[in-house]
Automatic annotation (TrEMBL):
Gene3D superfamilies: LCP protein. PANTHER family: POLYISOPRENYL-TEICHOIC ACID--PEPTIDOGLYCAN TEICHOIC ACID TRANSFERASE TAGU. Residues 18-171 form the Cell envelope-related transcriptional attenuator domain. It holds the Pfam family LytR_cpsA_psr. This is Cell envelope-related transcriptional attenuator domain-containing protein. It comes from hydrothermal vent metagenome.
Amino acid sequence: DGLPPEWEDNFGDFSGKRTDVIMIAQITPDGEGQLISLPRDLRVTIPGKGINKINAAFVFGGPDLLIQTIQENFGISINNYIEINFGGFGKVVDSLGGIEITFDNPARDAKSGLRVEEGTQRLDGEMALAYARSRFYQELRNGKWVSVRGSDIGRTGRQQEVLMTMFRQAKSPGSAFNLPGFVGTFAEQITADEGITPGVLLELGKAGLALDVENIDMRTLPVEISNQNGTSYVIPVEPEASALLAAFRAGVPFPPEE
């Protein structure tokens, strides 16, 4: 399918670890792209393991148990699975020549390695990853460093911003984006279920590029912090969470954001 045979080894091969980012995505029958981020501290029932954070499902049973957990807790059928590690994410960003993000103030995160100046900055893969992973995000305001959007929820927003920026750059007029080349780099950096072949990735890429940027809706499951038996979780906020998931299951537009 136009990709080197050695890249085929990345498909259908998994290893167990806690997932840092969990996103479910689809293209609806009406041609709208939808994505929901599931916070990694989300309280769920893991089949055969009981109550835990959703990111523990991968540790207990790899992608199969993670998929089963999502299906049984939220009633969403998962057809395919793609996993990319941190290093791979950075290489994918570098394959685009970096991404441009605008910062209202200088920003930093000593834990993730983020450090950027005010204004529109081109982030390479390493710095884009530091931005997307930041959990201790700070901005310099009036001469003082203050914490901003430092929670897991703020981080999912930054992750979605990075994805949307990558998509916009790929579609921008005059872009030198080369889909086969990008898919080749992407295929090198991922593991996926056996249904995701290099050819399928190319078709998914074509379908994605055909989407109107304005018809892509990215959301984070509405949640709130809940401390239970000494453990800090996040739990769905109702009825907003159920309404969002119901729209995703039905393949209809998400409810308006409040």
